[in-house]
Write a structure and sequence with these properties.
There is one protein chain. The chain has helices at residues 2-21, 114-127, 133-143, 146-157, 164-177, 182-203, 246-262, 279-282, 289-309, 327-332, 358-365; strands at 23-29, 35-41, 47-54, 60-64, 72-78, 81-87, 93-99, 109-111, 217-219, 225-227, 235-241, 267-273, 316-318, 339-343, 349-352. By secondary structure, the protein is α+β, with helices and mostly antiparallel strands. The strands form four sheets. A five-stranded mixed sheet has the order 13-12-11-14-15, covered by helices on one side. Helix 2 runs parallel beside helix 4, helix 4 runs antiparallel to helix 5 and helix 5 runs antiparallel to helix 6. It is elongated. The model is unreliable at 1-20 (pLDDT under 50).
């Protein structure tokens, strides 16, 4: 009897060994007695389940892949949580370990896949703020392997048109390394869509990249006119905003950060406020000039207080206090705020609405 049990034990161990020679296994705390899935991920969020395993009482599992898997994006999924795997070649045994409650902090580990380890390490550095967005961008361009570069771009920039040039560079890497992979073709399709979207946005913009920035000459809080052209020779963020605009106020801390970081390098901000009253708003007061004046004064005071509260420390704050009828807004085709234009030292428009890649754009110009 003992010999039979011993034989069965040896057979089980041999079977487990065979399974994990090419497959995914590991131990996940918090996943005890739960079903663990291994999925292939498409660029368009489609998934293909390749296998599953019931974890034991210790959270250990094994999902065999006798024929291996092709390069691409995969995941180990437990309930609503998943561990991303980036496989650049047919792997042998992939081993995953960690706590499922710490997956989003990238405190887990993966062995058997150098590309997955590369990705986890970079995301861990970003989460702990040891790497900022600029450092991550540089890594994507110069240090990351093709699939890791693609995954990081997806994770950090989510297809935003402001990062089109970066996406193009990543796409070139993928095409060179994996020309026939479905993921490469899907990524290329996304880049084409981003290009088309950017062209539509630029076509609909009254002000185009490369043209000389139209002049703005409006009064500041003290009634003194301040010209945009007076800042020629500096890199200028032309910022249309208002004290009543929630998204503008949320964006202000980043602008303040960039101002203090680069003001000594020749960067500054020219802020145009759309506070005040337009004719539509004035109509509410039925021609009562005293009421209109009182509301105008209140609006001007809210503008002033917002500058102080948000610590907008630069000197150039202007407004004609005409709200949506602002002559500057009309000149630049501004129909919604926040809206920004980055102007180079030569006085020409360098970028339209660089919200997500502002720092990178500033660095290029200074």
């Amino acid at each position: 009897m003992f010999k039979q049990f011993l034989l069965l034990g040896l057979l089980s161990m041999a079977l487990f060994s065979c399974q994990t020679e090419s497959g995914v296994s590991g131990t996940l705390t918090g996943a005890e007695n739960m079903t663990i899935y291994f999925d292939k991920m498409g660029k368009d969020n489609t998934t293909q389940s390749l296998g599953q395993s019931m974890a034991d009482a210790t959270g250990s599992f094994a999902i065999p892949m006798p024929e291996g898997v092709s390069p691409g994006m995969y995941r180990v999924r437990v309930g609503a949580r998943s561990i991303e795997l980036i496989l650049d070649k047919k792997p042998g045994a992939i081993k995953v370990s960690g706590d499922i409650n710490e997956i989003t902090s990238f405190k887990h580990s993966v062995t058997g896949s150098a590309t997955t380890t590369e990705y986890i390490n970079q995301m861990r550095l970003f989460n702990t703020k040891e790497q900022d967005l600029n450092a991550m961008t540089d890594f994507i361009k110069t240090g990351a392997s093709p699939l890791v570069a693609a995954k990081l771009a997806e994770k950090l920039f989510k297809g935003r048109s402001a990062y089109l040039e970066l996406y193009k560079e990543v796409n070139d890497k993928l095409v060179k390394a994996y020309p026939e992979m479905d993921y490469t073709k899907q990524f290329g399709g996304q880049v084409s869509a981003m290009e088309s979207n950017q062209k539509r946005q630029q076509a609909g913009s009254k002000v185009q990249v490369g043209q000389e920035a139209p002049e703005i000459d409006l009064p500041n809080l003290n009634g003194k006119n301040m010209k945009l052209s007076d800042l020629k020779g500096k890199v200028v963020l032309l910022d249309f905003w208002a004290s009543w605009c929630g998204p503008c106020r949320k964006a202000n801390p980043h602008v303040v950060e960039m101002y203090h970081k680069y003001k000594d390098d020749g960067f500054t901000v020219y802020s145009v406020s759309l506070d005040g009253l337009d004719n539509r708003t004035k109509a509410r007061y039925n021609g009562d000039e005293s009421q209109i004046k009182m509301q105008m004064d209140r609006s001007k005071e809210r503008w002033k207080q917002a500058i102080v509260k948000d610590k907008l420390d630069w000197d150039f704050h202007v407004s004609d206090l005409k709200k949506w009828e602002s002559i500057a807004a009309a000149t630049y085709g501004v129909r919604s705020i926040p809206k920004t234009f980055l102007i180079g030292k030569d006085g020409r428009i360098a970028a339209l609405n660089p919200r997500y890649d502002l720092e990178a754009q500033i660095q290029k110009l200074i």
